[in-house]
Prior knowledge:
The complex is a heterodimer.
Chain A (H helix, E strand, L loop, with lengths): L3 E5 L9 H10 L9 E5 L7 E5 L8 H5 L5 E3 L5 E3 L9 H5 L35 H7 L11 H5 L5 E5 H15 L8 H5 L6
Antiparallel strand pairs in A: 1-6, 2-3, 4-5
Chain B lengths: L1 H23 L22 H6 L4 E2 L1 E2 L8 E3 L2 H35 L18 H30 L6 H33 L7 H8 L17 H21 L2
Antiparallel strand pairs in B: 1-3
Amino acid sequence: MARVKFLCDADRCIECNACVTACKNEHEVPWGINRRRVVTINDGKPGERSVSMACMHCTDAPCAAVCPVSCFYTTADGVVLHSKDLCIGCGYCFYACPFGAPQYPKVGNFGSRGKMDKCTYCAGGPEDDNTLAEYTQYGANRLVEGKLPICAEMCSTKSLLAGDGAIIAEIYKERVMKRGYGSGAWGWKTAYHEGIAV
Amino acid sequence: MIRHLARIFSVIIAASAILTMIAATPAPAQQFGPDGAPNPTASVESEQKLLQQSPRIEGQIAQPNERERVLMQPAGRQWDYFHEVLLHWLGAIVILGMIATLGAAYLIMGRIRISKGRSGQKVRRFNAFERFSHWLTAISFVVLGLTGLNITFGKLLLLPVIRPEAFSSESQIAKYTHNFVSVSFVIGLVLIVSIWIKDNIPQKVDIEWIKQGGGFIKSKHAPSGRFNPGEKLVFWFALGAGVLLLSRDIC
């Protein structure tokens, strides 16, 4: 089975935020939450790089490890999903995630965060595929239709790649070889415990 | 002789300063690639270098949400390790060890009886306010402890026994209970500290109590003030642990 990953080519990303908008629209993401966001390092200075960041769907996901009610599960494709019905909104997954991917719709005192929401790799949730119940809670399920995540599909420069880990690593390697430079596959060491040797 | 040495010394200082300045200026050759064109990766921070930046790597973001500026928080790994590994071991050892110690103490020493039996007369040791403060703190602590244990050990011990939906509902209630009862715990703690701190300052008579082993070794009853050193230890430990918990869990 394919092990799917995300790769954001920081040298191509132009910070257009198309990925952010596409995801937010496709899944009717609640107000105040952006499942995917574009973070710019060294803004305005030499060496400025933009990286599109969402849940990386890590191998050995730390969010799944610390959840006190074990509401996370990993699918056969390597997508890390969770159940909003079991989630108690304690916030532990946010503290443990190295990328800060889990987000909460409410900001309340004394722990009233609401149910955690995060990027689902456009793979929905534990409800039955392509039902209204699944859509209202987790958003569209594109993976079951054989499509790739919409953020990568909408990327204007094709800097955000999604799909089988081996294939996108190969694409990135070719790019770096051809143009002669590359700042690296951002986040891969942390998420998948492997870099891309160029 | 001294002047000669001083001169050599100043030359060495000047030379090393100049050398440091030369080493510090960035070599312009690194900014260009092998073909003479600018090398775009030269000024980019590598992921490794950014990972040393703690507690978190932040950048600029188009959305007005401060929390989403975080690109990576390497401290998440320590958090994970502490909560999943350290806390489980520490908690298990401390709790089970304490139960074992108390059990052993009871088996070895048995019940500690009043030497002449109960007289039937009562003496008031604590007034109503003291009793209220103590029980406020004590009940809050037990509730906090149980709900806290549910968070740490619940998925290991309770989840295999009851269904996930039941466990989640129960954990939700436990989470809110824990968060709100912490208020009464802090109020209780402040009250008992302010009421009893003056009686818990170490005194001369405490040395005598310790020498007699608290009545276990020499006599059957050792002298003390209002509180004996054992009780004083409990007080200071409760105060210290309470403050530690407060400062840590307030996040």
